[in-house]
Amino acid sequence: MNTKTSTPPSDGRTVASFHGGLSLVRSERSTKRARVRGSEQANVLVVELGRSLATPGITADAVFKQHSARKIYSYAISETDPTKMVRRSVDGETTIGEFVNGKFKALRAGS
Predict the structure, then answer these.
(1) What residue spans define the domains of the chain?
(2) Could you tell me which residues come within 8 angstroms of residue 4 by beta carbon, excluding any fewer than 6 positions away?
(3) 76-90 pLDDT tens trace
């Protein structure tokens, strides 16, 4: 499907159109039915997608799943002061700071 236009492909019809050019298109059924595992059926995937979208953020395991020689950090906006950032490392160390010219600068205690 061409993302620059809103026309559906020639072998289907548009069922719904969404913001950003995303369209749901119904195409003709194939004569050969593919076997789909129960965990990959639409009714299961839609429920899982809904659960994922209802929960903000991602898990620490997703951020820190690979250990490497370099330190990896996750950044979040401070819940108590939205002008500050919280940097967390894989070992659980938390640092409060801010980004200045694209680099994280730790704030001194009491700042």
Answers:
(1) 60-106
(2) 21
(3) 899 899 999 999 887
| Residue 87: per-residue pLDDT | 92
Kindly report the average pLDDT of the chain as a whole number: 76
User: The tokens 């979208």 sit on which residue?
Assistant: 53
Instruction: Give the three-class secondary structure for 40.
Output: helix
Write the CA distances from 59 to 2, 71, 74, 94, integer angstroms: 34, 18, 10, 16
Q: How far apart are CA 62 and CA 13, in angstroms?
A: 37
Phi, psi of 16 (to 5 degrees): -150, 145
pTM of the predicted structure, to 2 decimals: 0.43
